[in-house]
Amino acid sequence: MVVKLKDIPVQYANALRRICLAGIPTFAVDDVVIIENSSVLPDEGVAHRLAMVPLRTDLSRFVEPSACDCHSELGCSRCRVLLVLDSGSSDTTRTITSAEISSEDEVVKPVSPNIPIVALAPSQKLKVEAYARLGRGNDHAKWNSATIAILTATNNPNEHILTIETTGSLTPKEVLRASIDELEKRLDEFQKNLATLG
Q: Which of 99, 120, 137 is the last residue of a domain?
């Protein structure tokens, strides 16, 4: 998505760009319980690959764990989603993809069914439970809300071009709207902090 920003100081436009990139919460796998893994990929490799699978995100129904009333490490239905992958066994070599991940939520699921996770030889199995939580790209790249956020200058010093591309967790329009709200929230908070200083 390409947006023309008019009459916005460059520092605010750049702040908006940075928030688009890593300041909006998205879902990503954060905890993995390996029930069975007879593949050649170690448990840590499986967990890492699951964490990097982009998940569709619904910001209207879920909250970040730090803002949830449950205050639980395990989370609750407001701050986490359970995903299950059970490959079963097969007589042939096959590649397990994100299509085999089932979610307890109809919205929070992989953005694409074609993301490879692990190759299994005959009789090898993979069974995992994964817990996805909202997080921000400032903490880890798996939570980046956009893959590209570029601010380009134009011949007019009062105009800037903002280009946004996402992983599919959120649409570019959702990222932009949420970024504007987040920037406004941060500026209000900054103003309140300045007022307390005197």
A: 137
In tens, the pLDDT along 121-165 reads 999 999 999 999 999 999 999 999 999 999 999 999 889 999 999
Give the helix, strand, coil percentages of the chain, each rounded to 5.
30, 30, 40
**Residues in CB range of 22: below 8 A, 6 or more apart:** 136, 137, 138, 143, 144, 145, 146
pTM of the model: 0.88
Q: How far apart are CA 176 and CA 164, in angstroms?
A: 8
What domain range is 188 assigned to? 2-23+145-197
**Cα separation values, 193 from 9, 14, 133, 161, 188, Å:** 22, 22, 30, 31, 9
- Same domain for 101 and 54? yes
Nearest to 143 by CA among 22, 62, 60, 57: 22
- The Cα 77–Cα 131 span in angstroms is 11
Q: Are 157 and 13 in contact (CB under 8 A)?
A: no
Chain-centre distance of CA 17, in angstroms? 17
